[in-house]
Amino acid sequence: MCLASINIIQEKMDSKLIFFDIDGTLALEPSGIIPDSTRAAIAGAKENGHQVFVNTGRTFYSISEGIRAMDFDGYVCGCGTHIYYRGKKLLESAVPHSMCVNVANMLRNARIPVFYEADKAIYFDFSYPNPWLQEAMEIFATKGRNIEELFCDESETYDKCLIFLPDTEEAGEIKTFLDAHFYCIPRGGNVWEVTQRGYTKATGIRFMCSYLNADMDNCFAVGDSENDLDMLRAVKNSIAMGNAKDEVMACCSYVTKGIDEDGIYYALKHFGIIK
Q1: Residues 6+ apart with CB under 8 A from 34
Q2: 175/191 Cα distance (integer angstroms)
Q3: Which residue, of 56, 151, 250, 253, is most buried by count of CB atoms within 10 Å of its CB?
Q4: Which helix (H) or strand (E) holds 51?
Q5: What is the DSSP letter of 58?
Q6: pLDDT one digit per residue (tens) for the chain, 275 residues
Q7: Beta 17-20 vs 114-117: how paired, if at all?
Q8: What is the b/e burial string over 106-125, where b = at least 16 CB atoms within 10 angstroms of the residue's CB?
């Protein structure tokens, strides 16, 4: 084997794939502000030959321009349901239209606070009061689309939803139905992230490793909340933010400082990703 080939193999072995959650990891909540140290650390990792990825529960539509401007190599969105690499969509999966309508009608009849996330839109149900409505519009910087549009167009679907289920018998029955058909991730305070079965942030990492012919041992994952647990448990090098939930810290191989204490910078420096 020639020296050039050996060098290429060595560079591939040295190059790491680093997957970052957004909210509470890359960006402060609820402001969405990205610390300057985080921007510098991500840029430094790329300069040193590593590949950086967003791995988020958000759909691509709801990723801020500030995050997109950071020149990530790829995006694992919607808890693994949509995957992009250097401008190319590699994978996509949406909830079948009939199930979208079924779930939306069920939640409407029970007047459950919810918003629905699609790859190119966020849907709200304006037919009943929703205490999340204004807050969600502000967080995602959008007025959203009316779920009625989806009812009338079979080509329209969504990928996941976020719901608040009160402690009632009716809500319990809804949860039983959702558990039978979806993957429900607890987000605290009776809030559930309802995602597609068979897809998680961890499956997104495995997909990218397969696509790039990379080793899972060369992957890092950084997160702070319950929907990060799958990806943090899937990799050897798992990093919890200092502001992470206790359950997240307990499952990680390293705990860095909080997001507002230059946590991303210190984590990447600790592992030699940046100097």
Answers
A1: 26, 27, 28, 66, 67, 70
A2: 11
A3: 56
A4: strand 51-55
A5: S
A6: 443 333 334 444 489 999 999 999 999 988 899 999 999 999 999 999 999 999 999 999 989 999 999 999 999 999 999 999 999 999 999 999 999 999 999 999 999 999 999 998 889 998 988 877 777 777 666 678 999 999 999 999 999 999 999 999 999 999 999 999 999 999 888 999 999 999 999 999 999 999 999 999 999 999 999 999 999 999 999 999 999 999 999 999 999 999 999 999 999 999 999 99
A7: unpaired
A8: ebeebebbbbbbbbebbbbb
Please state, in angstroms and rounded to a whole number, the distance separating the CA atoms of residues 100 and 267.
40
Domains and CATH numbers, the chain: 16-92+199-270 (3.40.50.1000), 97-196 (3.30.1240.10)
Structure tokens at 10: 């060595």
